[in-house]
Amino acid sequence: MKTLGAAELLDVWEKGLDQSILHRALILLTAACPEMDPAAVAELNIGERDTRLLQLREWMFGSRLVNTAACPHCAEHVEWESDIADLYVQSSDLSSTAEGSSLQTGKYQLRFRLPNSIDIAAVLDESKTGSKAEDLLKRCIVSAECAGKAFDKNRLPKRALETLGRQIEKLDPQAEIRIELTCPECSHRWEILFDIASFLWSEINSWAEQTLSTVHRLAGAYGWPEREILNLSPVRRQLYLGMVNR
After folding, report:
1. Is the pTM of this model over 0.85?
2. What span, in angstroms and rounded, lies between the C-alpha atoms of 89 and 106?
């Protein structure tokens, strides 16, 4: 994986403008991981995908994160900050997750893998009204047996699926980053689910708009083409912009 230059990041931003946040994350990682086939990027389990997004964010914008959330009790806006290092979660058991894992729950023996972006996209695209969470779990079941005989995974009881869900959370805890907040106004405490893909894309969008504005002003002032301006370091672009603003 590599960091992206200004021109590369603008290309990624442009390609992702009319895409879902899921596909934006894949476009970004595909550009940052030229050593990987795009299909392999999409097959990364969610925790591995988000670990790479956290690393990419640190390379591009630094390790400090600042975000806001609304208190669910009094609606007060709470600003919180963190360091990316605090958001990495070590799995308690990574053994055999690449090849698949086994789970015995009651009389059912399940062989499963961890969810990936393809699974999430498929579940979100399905129009049926069933539980998306259960549909996602069923997609991850490679095989199911009951009393030693093959069993239809779509007929598994809810309890078995709930056990599977807990096991997947244990194997891939990075897939859900939860942050505990306390409201300074009413002292209410609650947890939020931090989505690095959405957070990072919001930052990229702000960066792209600011960068294009800088390109516009420098091109108008000096007659330079976009590519030459983007090839300048961020410091030099800002210095030239400061001279234009005098």
Report:
1. yes
2. 29
